[in-house]
Amino acid sequence: MKQATIIIVIAALALAGLSCGLTVDIPVDRITTGPTRTDEINIPAPDADEIDLILSFGAGDFKLDSGAADALVSGTARYNVDDFKPEITVEGNQVRLESGELKIEGIPRINDDVENEWDLELGDQVINLEINSGAYKGDFDLGDLSLKSLKVSDGAADVRLKFSQPNRIEMDSLSYQTGASNVRLTDLANANFASMVFRSGAGNYTLDFSGELQPDAEVDIKSGISQVTLIVPEGFSAQVIFEGGLTNVETHGAWQKSGGDYLLEGSGPVLTISVDMGAGNLILRTTPQ
What is the model's pTM? Predict the structure, then answer.
């Protein structure tokens, strides 16, 4: 696990102190590691038509896939800091799986000796899935699930999320909000969503809409100083509505500019993407690079 986020926080506080002519003493605690433990996770599904599942993960490595047999969530949690022990809470149709919080004062000093890894699978129940994470590395394959909605919120992250197979039901909404991150979302058409919202800070982001687009879909993207790559396969009917004063737009493939918009001619359901960027690069492709 890296110290980049912590270094940024310390630097920001130090600069603030210098600008005010003050000396800032920042308490920094080193995280104490112990023997590595592996907890088996097996959460039965509540008896409900829809289940609200909230997965809250701090820092580390998080892998998520389909395939849980006779359970809502199954898998393992591996950690060597006692405070990271996962906690499970069930209230009615709401299920929470949370990584324990560090019980220290000041800013944690995290080094590569710290381990915190989740390797989980989800069942085929109808799920409203919410994923909340901090500075972490994520590898998610959410294909072949029954997701009614999906909401992802993370901090400084390196995430690969895909829908390798179609979502079994129509997804009402898909939301992804991140800070300064490197995020790649692929096979998004397989998510079977009606509307999608993507919010990001500085970083590098790829949204690949390959797959099988079923209903007409709308996507709303707002990003800070970043590079955003949109991939829509040829044969799709798509429109990108763009706003951004200091953003360079680069097109590849069959994309055509029409006024301030960019069009891809095709048949079937229509994909409409609104993009609002403060500055950076917007790249439109029909195939991955």
Answer: 0.87
